[in-house]
Amino acid sequence: MRVLVVEDESRLAETVRRGLADEGFVVEVAHTGEQGLWALTERDFDVIVLDIMLPGKSGYTVLGELRDRGIWTPVLMLTAKDGEYDQVDAFDLGADDYLTKPFSFMVLVARLRALIRRGVSERPVVLTAGDLVLDPVSHRVSRNGVDVRLTPREFNLLEFLMQHRGDAVSKSEILRNVWDPSFDGDLNIVEVYVRYLRRKLDHPFGTDCIETIRGVGYRLDPDGGAMVGSGS
Ligand code: CA
What we know:
This protein is of the alpha/beta class. It has two domains: 2-118, Response regulator (Rossmann fold); 127-227, Winged helix-like DNA-binding domain superfamily/Winged helix DNA-binding domain (Arc Repressor Mutant, subunit A, Orthogonal Bundle). It is 39% helix and 22% strand. Strands 2-1-3-4-5 form a five-stranded parallel β-sheet. The protein has a four-stranded antiparallel β-sheet with strand order 6-7-8-9, with helices on one face. Helix 2 (33-42) runs parallel beside helix 3 (59-68) and helix 6 crosses helix 8. The model is unreliable at 225-232 (pLDDT under 50). It binds calcium ion. The site of calcium ion has 5 residues, from loops.
């Protein structure tokens, strides 16, 4: 298991490097975003630990450039509680997981192992539902041939709904799958993001593919159109 740790605080980087090596990881440390990007274009890694606050290129710039280059290695971001970015930003920027400093080393190891496991089985095929097309690799969404730009969170929500097309999914199921398992915020965040999706995917096209199922949650049904008051 090869890990790249991008962290400018050398003492923390060294502690993490030593600890991960003891756990059987092969670890490489980069102290700047530029170094990290270079390592990532030269060598393959199974997972990346990426600090957000870095001199020069910030962690989030590094992450954006990685994804632009088509490198989909899972990324765990290190965020600072009082930093410029918080954990919600880390996800919106396309991170796969995050830890807030200071963190427990054993939690870091467990999260990295989970990401590595997930990373192997992922990279699924293009999803379609009616005239909706979602490509998980290029991160593109289109409706009826027209590109629709989504934030990473909106994208993940749509991906989840498309994987369960035709089924009613509850808000808590959505929260568990689209947000981090440790997210303990309000369920209403799901409503907010469904609204964002409708604004981008339905309103401009005069469609109504995300149904609200009262008392249950939501159902993506691109062929069903508007089904007012669908019971059960
Ligand atoms: Ca830092």
